[in-house]
Amino acid sequence: MSASLSYLERSKLHSNPTAKAFLELMERKKSNLSVAADLNKKAALIELADKVGPYICLLKTHIDVVEDFDQDLVDQLTALAKKHDFMIFEDRKFADIGNTVKLQYGSGIYKIASWSDITNAHMVPGEGIVQGLREVGLPLNRAMLLLAEMSSAGTLAKGDYTVKTVEVARKYKDFVVGFIAMERYADKEGDDFIYMTPGVGMDQTSDGMGQQWKHPREVVFDRGCDVIIVGRGIYGGGRDAAKEAKRYQEAGWNAYVERISK
Ligand code: 6AU
């Protein structure tokens, strides 16, 4: 059912303030594009965020690959998020016991919970990982995605693993607002999960290292997902990142409009 509703209508179904604000932002900005900014220099990351900022709803970071990370990077990214009206998703892929992920999320060098609106986690350790992250994230109004599936060839996140992941998400809906997934699963009464899908590219289908890229229309229209996550398709190979971001924004948004109008 959720797949046929607008992002704005769905924002009203969420109690998590970040999920609500994120769905409103998508509608306001006409963007379901997240850029995966996998760059290892602070200046390059800031430059990319500023260039693609007008076209995205979400900037996805891997903060631990930045060689010259400092608090100023976080300050500049959060200022750009305000300037261009996007949110930040640190793609940390937590994967440890509850007590450890609490420390990894809230402290250390990166203090992810202090600046990242959304983060994600694997379900490998069991539901304690959600409990630990939720303890830190909920008081800060943060939101989380569970990795229910992956885009890479040979992924073990499938079948029963995916089904169990969705069950855990339903238990902690105040914090787990969606999934990293390759397709939308059957909605149950009361479900409204946000589906974010990596492995999106319009010009190539594979990177030779297991990544598998699909077209935005296939992801949003055919598979019913909500957010396209695009990295190298936008900034790779000397591409003009702003131009490509606009192209992906239009492709993603058109597929969404087509989906909710059918
Ligand atoms: O478009 P790309 O292939 O350059 O970048 C894809 C981005 C990378 C991956 O770490 C991430 O998406 N990713 C994820 C996420 C977002 O959790 C899961 C997955 O299954 N595949 C994947 O590529 O930053």
UniProtKB/TrEMBL annotation:
Keywords: Decarboxylase, Lyase, Pyrimidine biosynthesis. Pfam families: OMPdecase (PF00215). It is an enzyme of class 4 (lyase). It catalyses: orotidine 5'-phosphate + H(+) = UMP + CO2. The keyword Lyase applies. Residues 32-247 form the Orotidine 5'-phosphate decarboxylase domain. Its EC number is 4.1.1.23. Pathway: Pyrimidine metabolism; UMP biosynthesis via de novo pathway; UMP from orotate: step 2/2. Substrate binds at D38, K60, S151, Q211, G231, R232. The active site is at D91 (for ompdecase activity), K93 (for ompdecase activity), D96 (for ompdecase activity). One of its GO terms (biological process) is 'de novo' pyrimidine nucleobase biosynthetic process. Belongs to the OMP decarboxylase family. This is Orotidine 5'-phosphate decarboxylase. It comes from Linnemannia hyalina.
